[in-house]
Design goal:
The protein is α/β, with parallel strands linked by helices. The protein has two domains: 117 residues, Urease, subunit C, domain 1, CATH 2.30.40; 314 residues, Alpha-Beta Barrel (TIM Barrel). The strands form three sheets. Strands 6, 7, 8, 9, 10, 11, 12, 13 and 14 form a nine-stranded parallel β-sheet that branches.
Length: 451
């Protein structure tokens, strides 16, 4: 198999431009330009040019997944100590691990493994929290670029001495802002960089001084960067901002100039109605992390309510607050928790009062959020098969012997929900980012034509 820049690919394509439904482009030819964007899409009956990658009928092409919340340095502790409260988990396990990224050899090994695994698992775009270390953050950006992943990478800011470990924090607000600026400049200066962007990243309000938050807000206005942070993740985190400022996380972030069209707020479990209106009015997005919220969020994010109020929402794995790096699992969990929110979870409560009506969403909505929804939240041309969008895509092998999809003679394009519920990593035959082949499963790829 080879890349697709300047070539075409023929097969069945399925994407989700809107919530609750998919669009099937059956026996279509997608023409990919030299810049990695889709030039046009045509029915195969109109002609198939020489050199087209012609997929067999048991393959299906879907958009690559967009993970809106990844703590890149936490990958080595995926699945560890999730029985602890958030503040204990951070102090006892997470901060000591993140401090190790001062060692660039360790950072190179861990980050390289993470990016390779995410690409093989279908994550074509990731929004990354790095660490406080400038050099290691720049290293992560370079690894993403070298391995071909579309990524947004941010140096974490955490300078508040009363909340952060002595051996793991920014030396001062001025140092935090200067290092953030340096990372932005370094990422923008990467040679041949067509897919990695910098992100201004206050970890969350409990870790940052007012001086740091204000300085980062000014940097946002100056550099026009994306912004990412945690927002109202748990009872503790939500209450902290109220105790400190007399206002919610959302209001406080907005006051510091950190709530913009290019902001992604992770979790946001306890957004008030006023918060939701503010997020919508600013055009900001929410990274819904259904799996990690089950461990640290203390409640279920009211996803359907947020969508109906017009918020831009995508999905996140929250490595390692959630024990899975798979966006397929993130989508499945998103559906499950929405049903739990609607039906309730306390069997001793009455059927009439134990749930929140009109809360559930379906898997096709979750698929939309994991692909096009993430692209909308980031304001990037990804997540759809449309002219002008980047060809970030996965070839799904429904017949892979090591996979878990079993269609019993049905055509993959007719069973998208079954595929999304049952697919695992071996079912992902190939991963493309901007038309470049960045990962492939040897068993599945061997059966693909090479013309």
């Amino acid at each position: 198999m080879t890349g697709l820049r300047g070539r075409a690919i023929r097969g069945h394509f399925v994407h989700a431009p809107d919530r609750g439904a998919v669009e099937v482009l059956e026996d279509a030819v997608v023409f990919v330009g030299e810049d990695g964007r889709i030039e046009r899409i045509a029915p195969a009956r109109d002609g198939v040019p020489e050199g087209t990658l012609d997929l067999p009928p048991d393959r299906l092409v879907i958009p690559g997944f967009v993970d809106l919340h990844v703590h890149a340095p936490q990958y080595p502790q995926l699945g560890l100590a999730l029985d602890e409260p958030l503040e204990v988990w951070l102090g006892k396990y997470t901060f000591p691990l993140e401090a190790r990224y001062a060692d660039l050899d360790f950072a190179r090994e861990a980050y390289g493994r993470l990016v390779k695994d995410l690409l093989a698992g279908g994550t074509t775009t990731a929004l990354y929290f790095a660490t406080v270390h400038r050099q290691a953050t720049e290293l992560l950006a370079g690894i993403c670029l070298n391995l071909g992943q579309r990524a947004l990478v941010g140096k974490v800011v955490m300078d508040l001495a009363e909340s952060c470990p002595d051996d793991y924090r920014d030396a001062s607000p001025a140092a935090a802002i200067a290092d953030s600026r340096a990372v932005i400049e370094a990422i923008r200066a990467l040679p041949d960089n067509d897919r990695v962007l910098p992100v201004i990243t206050p970890r969350f309000i409990p870790s940052c001084s007012d001086e740091a938050l204000a300085g980062l807000g000014a940097l946002v206005a100056e550099c026009a960067c994306h912004v990412q942070t945690h927002c109202s993740e748990s009872n503790w985190a939500h209450g902290y901002a109220i105790d400190r400022y007399g206002k919610t996380d959302t209001e406080a972030l907005d006051g510091f100039g950190l709530l913009t069209r290019n902001t992604v707020l992770a979790h946001s479990v306890f957004l008030t109605d006023s918060d939701m209106d503010r997020v919508r009015s600013r055009g900001a997005g929410v990274a819904h992390c259904a799996l990690s919220n089950a461990y640290f969020g203390n409640a279920v994010f009211p996803l359907r309510k947020a969508l109906e109020r017009g918020l831009n929402v995508g999905l996140g794995t929250d490595i390692s607050g959630g024990p899975s790096a798979s966006m397929l699992e993130a989508a499945r969990m998103t559906v499950a928790v929405s049903r739990m929110l609607q039906d309730g979870v306390d069997p001793d409560d009455s059927r009439e009062t134990r749930g929140r009506p009109e809360s559930r969403i379906d898997l096709l909505t979750a698929f939309h959020l994991a692909t096009a929804g993430g692209g909308i939240a980031l304001d990037l041309d990804i997540g759809l098969f449309r002219p002008g969008y980047y060809f970030d895509a996965l070839i799904i092998d429904a017949a892979a012997e090591a996979g878990t999809i079993r269609l019993f003679g049905a055509q993959p394009a007719d069973r998208i929900e079954q595929i999304l519920y049952t697919a695992i990593r071996p079912n992902i035959a190939a991963t493309y980012v901007g038309g470049d082949l960045v990962a492939h499963n040897h068993e599945s790829a061997a059966a693909l034509p090479r013309t």
